Amino acid sequence: MTKCRKDLEHYKRVEAAIRFIEQQVNKQPSLEEIAAHVHLSKHHFSRIFKEWVGISPVRFLHFLTVEHTKEKLAESRPLLETALSAGLSGSGRLHDLFINFEAMTPGEFKLHGKDVTIEYAFAPTPFGKSLLAQTTRGICYLGFVGESKDVLLAELFTVWKGATFIHAPSKILPLIEAIFYPSPNVSQNISILMKGTNFQINVWRALLTIPQGHLVTYKDIASAIGATNAARAVGSAVGKNHIGYIIPCHRAITSTGVLQKYRWGSSRKKALIGWEASRQELSNEEEQNSKCYEP
């Protein structure tokens, strides 16, 4: 978990920088001012930022502008429509992982996890400390720590109030590693267990079709699942997703292109979106470079 812990330390600086930019949005702070706010020199800040995400802070911040997000919305809409036209069954994708998803039956939903055993633990990730929980049928919870670990733990116990809980770091830490640091070119499967109403589950399944580096609006999702006038209800369902990152609720935004409203904090949402956009750009550059060297 060495790389993960290093990323966690870097993320704390990145999140603080993003929060500062949010507070000073009208003043457009310079790179020197941002670095000074997180108590680093401009060059040191740029170095750890690039180690964390792979690109410069200036390039990263471009991915968070309204102009860029609106551009990605226009690009992503046809992708969502194409993916959903093939149906909402099958596997989703998360970087190099295949996501197999299962929904609890209405009967199971009413029992709130009765007779279910859940293993859980806190662990570092590139986006802050997380709480991950799993059943024998798959991951049932993934959230990011905000003000207090106790708040997150209380939410897990409330969502699955009928379950039996076992603190199991030895089971959870390798799973965190597989999710956030999958082995390249190695096909891996991750299973998740969704607990929600039929409408919520349809929304979450739709989220699983959104590719990395792309964004959609709540209205796009509503239209895609056949609930054209239910954009507000879609937004509510997105906000109640209990399996963050894997079910990418951070990729759903308002039509204004402004990045806000995320249950684990707007700064983290921006970090997730910027990180994925950066990864996508780096991947595109590598692909382009490989073509240039083809015989």
Any chance you could write out the topology, listing elements then pairs?
Elements: H1 2-23, H2 31-37, H3 42-53, H4 57-62, H5 66-85, E1 92-94, E2 97-103, H6 106-110, E3 117-125, E4 128-135, E5 138-144, H7 149-159, E6 164-167, H8 169-180, E7 188-194, H9 198-207, E8 216-217, H10 218-224, H11 231-239, E9 252-253, H12 266-292
Parallel strand pairs: 2-7, 3-6, 8-9
Antiparallel strand pairs: 1-2, 3-4, 4-5
Descriptive report:
- 50% of the residues lie in helices and 17% in strands.
- The protein has 295 residues and is of the alpha/beta class.
- It has a domain at 69-253: Arc Repressor Mutant, subunit A.
- The strands form three sheets. A four-stranded mixed sheet has the order 5-4-3-6, sandwiched between helices. Strands 1-2-7 form a three-stranded mixed sheet.
- Strand 1 and strand 2 form a beta hairpin.
Task: Give me a quick take on this structure.
By secondary structure, the chain is an alpha/beta fold.
